[in-house]
Amino acid sequence: MDDLYREIILDHYRHPRHKGELEHPSHTFQDDNPLCGDRIRIDLKVNDQNVIEQVAFDGEGCAISQASASMLTEMLLGKTLDEAKALGKQDILDALGIELGPARLKCALLSLKVLKGAVYGLPTDLDGEED
Amino acid sequence: MFDTTAIRRDFPILNQEMNGHPLVYLDSAASSQKPLAVIQAMDEYYRTYHANVHRGIYQLSERATDAYEAARRKVARFINAASWREIIFTRNATEAINLVAYSWGRRHIRAGDTILLTEVEHHANIVPWQQLAAEVGARVAFVPVDERICCDVSALDALLDQRVKLLAITQMSNVLGTIPPLAEFVTRAHAAGALVLLDGAQGVPHLPTDVQALDVDFLAASGHKMLGPTGSGFLYGKRALLEAMPPFLTGGDMIRRVTREGAEWNDLPYKFEAGTPAIAEAIGLGAAVDYLTALGMDNVRRHEVELTHYALERLGQVEGIRLYGPLDAEARGGAVAFNLGDVHAHDLASILDREGIAIRAGHHCAMPLHQKLGVSATARASFYVYNEPAEVDRLVDALNGARRLFGG
Question: Does residue A128 register a pLDDT over 50?
Fold first, then answer.
């Protein structure tokens, strides 16, 4: 088994969790990585306590980008918006459980970038987190 | 095919392991590796006769100037230019194309004119023309390309009219490997009153190239794709055209005389080489040309046709593979783009990297072509003089491994 493509990553890639779209999301954002053609959209629905009750993602791209988005949706359910804002690069890398070179790091972190766009309502730089 | 065992001894970088596997370098279309002769030529210049060119009275500078100008003559002979004055050193093919777009284009392309490209062009042969067109109110049009057979001459005829002032076309597609029917294209473009710029970034390293036989007006090429160093490249232009063109970059070395009121330009080719040039790189490129000339470009082409034929045959047997470009190796170059089932090209490249196999994945600076193909990315293996059938076998084995990994 190739350690870069651990079974859990391939499982999320083949069977993405929460793939689709929400009908009336409270937060939504889409971004792409033009270099790779990776594209991800994340929809969130929060309740009046700002807890994420529903989440969906859609997208296309490589296994790393799509599996990381799928894993991120699992992390988000039940979290408050503030907790979601606090998620960072290391949370994604811990979930993936692999070492990534700089080129593939962009694939892995696209979903996080999209999440930040959704919760802050604008495109957000990851402030050096990709470096 | 070449005796690659002998050739590979000239390329020290190939003799190493990646992740415990012997390196298989299949990305020469992006940048080729360098033979010792090139590395040593540059090393010798820096160690023993480095000085600026065209200036010094002392011996070091004379020797540096001789070597720099000898490299220019080697390049001129390599593409059979009528004169060494028709060779302008640039950083790469991109800069050479930009030189033409800025110097010739901004003087001769006017509102309502058309710049004709093909659908397989690299961004380097698209964006400079789009910029020029936007600036002067001209139009950029694309000759449609059939993925398997390249360009239909009738498709060119349908677009050629008196508004077309330039046909800018690749000598070989960096994605599909396609070799356009240049003779017909050049004849027709000239008959319609258009000039022809040939983007030789992929063609010059792999095909015998004779600018006089092809009768192209400009040719752009990159040294680093033809065994030379990065930062080396050249523009060929017909002398009468170059003589009539204004300078591109201005400064030292490109002038004959400067007064407070203005300046007079130097002779060709110096008019287009402002500032201290990339001297070591030009000398390295000269050594690369020597290396290719010794191999013989007809032999280089033959080696690549045979290797590409083998690769197309072996790759074609991989379950779920989609090969792009002509399937006849004689009709194409050794850049072979493919996709494998629904495995993303970047995943393929990562998996292959684990096995020590270097391929390119992405849009290869040809996004309009990928839009036409309906994919955001392809994987690409590309071959050169040092590649051998055993490396194709390694590639095929690794692809089968990737298929199993993702198929389960």
Answer: no
The domain locations on chain B are 4-26+296-407, 39-294
Fold of B4-26+296-407: Aspartate Aminotransferase, domain 1 (3.90.1150)
| C-alpha distance from B372 to closest chain A C-alpha (Å) | 14
Query: How are beta strands A38-46 and A27-33 bridged, if at all?
Result: antiparallel
Task: Encode pLDDT of B4-47 as tens digits.
Answer: 999 999 999 999 999 999 999 999 999 999 999 999 999 999 99
Q: Kind of pairing, strands B139-143 and B195-199?
A: unpaired
pLDDT band for B55, please (50, 70, 90 cuts).
confident
Inter-chain residue contact B350 with A10, CB threshold 8 Å: no
Residue A131 placed within a domain: no
The DSSP letter of residue B199 is: E
Residue-level pLDDT at A33: 85
Phi, psi (degrees; rounded to nearest 5) at B224: -70, -15
Interface predicted TM-score (ipTM) of this complex, two decimals: 0.84
Phi (first) and psi of residue B2, to 5 degrees? -65, 160
User: Which residues 6+ apart lie within 8 Å of B279 measured at CB?
Assistant: B45, B50, B52, B53, B64, B67, B68
Residue-range definition of the domain harbouring residue A115: 3-119
Whether B142 contacts B368, CB under 8 Å:
yes
Q: Under CATH, which architecture does the B39-294 domain have?
A: 3-Layer(aba) Sandwich (3.40)
Nearest by CB to residue A36, choosing from B377, B406, B408, is B377
Tell me which residue in B347, B362, B408 faces A63 most closely, judged by beta carbons.
B347
B4-26+296-407 and B39-294 in the same fold: no
Best interface-test mutation with B: which of A2, A3, A64, A68 has the largest number of B CBs within 10 A?
A2
Taking the CA atoms of B372, B377, B381 and B382 in sequence, report the sign of the dihedral they define. positive
Domain count, chain A: 1
Q: Are B327 and B309 in contact (CB under 8 A)?
A: no
Closest-CA distance, A117 to chain B, in angstroms, reads 23
* pTM to 2 decimal places: 0.93
List active site positions of B. 365
CB-nearest partner of B377 from A1, A37, A104: A37
Task: Find out whether the peptide bond into B269 is cis, omega within 30 degrees of 0.
Answer: yes
| DSSP per-residue letters across B367-389 | HHHHHHHT-S-EEEEE--TT--H
User: What is the predicted pLDDT for the residue at A131?
Assistant: 42
Q: What is the mean pLDDT of residues B142-169?
A: 91
CB contact under 8 A, A35 and B362: yes
Apex B351 CA angle, B343 and A108, nearest 5: 75
- CA torsion sign for B80, B287, B22, B380 is negative
Residues of chain B with C-beta less than 8 angstroms from the C-beta of A107: 346
Tell me how close the Cα of B402 comes to any Cα of chain A, in angstroms: 9
Inter-chain contact A36–B347, Cβ cutoff 8 Å? no
